[in-house]
Amino acid sequence: MKIFIDTADLEEIKEAISWGIVDGVTTNPSLIKKAVDKRSGKISMEDYIKEIVKIAPGPVSLEVISRTSEEMIREGRLLYKKFSPFGEVAIKIPINPSMKEDEGLDFEGLKAIKQLSADGIPVNVTLIMTPEQALLAAKAGAAYASPFAGRIDDFIRTNLGMKRGHDFQKGDYFNYEVLHKARERKLEEVMEGMSSIREIYESKDVDSILKQGQDNGVYSGVDLVARILRIYRAYGFKTEVIAASIRNPRQVREVAELGVHIATIPFDVLKGMVKHYKTMEGMRGFMSDVVPQYRTLFEES
Ligand code: E4P
To answer: Ligand 1: which residue has its CA nearest to atom 12?
Structure first.
């Protein structure tokens, strides 16, 4: 599995590269805003991005900011022309740039993905929330598809009435096993006393329980990634899946177990991946057991 770092913060990128585990970088307008705010707005954007592209050991994803296909194609080509001479660049295009219903922009993303890919520009399709969106991205020729695992987990919890920052924190592990067990238990309770299969099938209570703790048949962000991989493998699509919107080390483990091509991981989550209490405890033990006889081995003669 390749690891991309999900940040536009140059210091974080440099630090993670020094650990020898970074294969690429992903940015988005919100991550760029964070980097700009950190420098109180004093930044030459072009030089800043050039530096990221130069030091990155793999593709740096840069996102367009318009929403019609013509403009996204223009911006994608421009970003690519400006920065690809300095290293590998991928252009991020939203799968669907609509911000509300009936804007008429639903297919603008696909048109831009198709054209930029035909130009030979690697496209990273962003804001993927369903397996069917990922299927369309691959059909249009995307080099990468980025399912937003963490945001799907947030959405499922929000639909259960939980509030982020109050009932759960951004980095909390999403426990789909508990949700699964809770759903099964509720179903058994509600189904008790129902005598026919038809009665169960038509029951509004059963339907309502089945719909909770999931998003139209997607049971977690990791499940979203799993379903996309299954579809891509079934048809031999070359599009690489980037598990995005990663919130904690355990989520990284779960997408890695699926054999996802890439995970794009925030700096703090990367830092968390190396930690374990027993590792630290082990270190304390080994350090305190070093005998002088063994220490002599490390003395230069
Ligand atoms: C990366 O490609 C995405 O833009 C990023 O992972 C989104 O993460 P977030 O949901 O934590 O904002």
So the answer is: 245
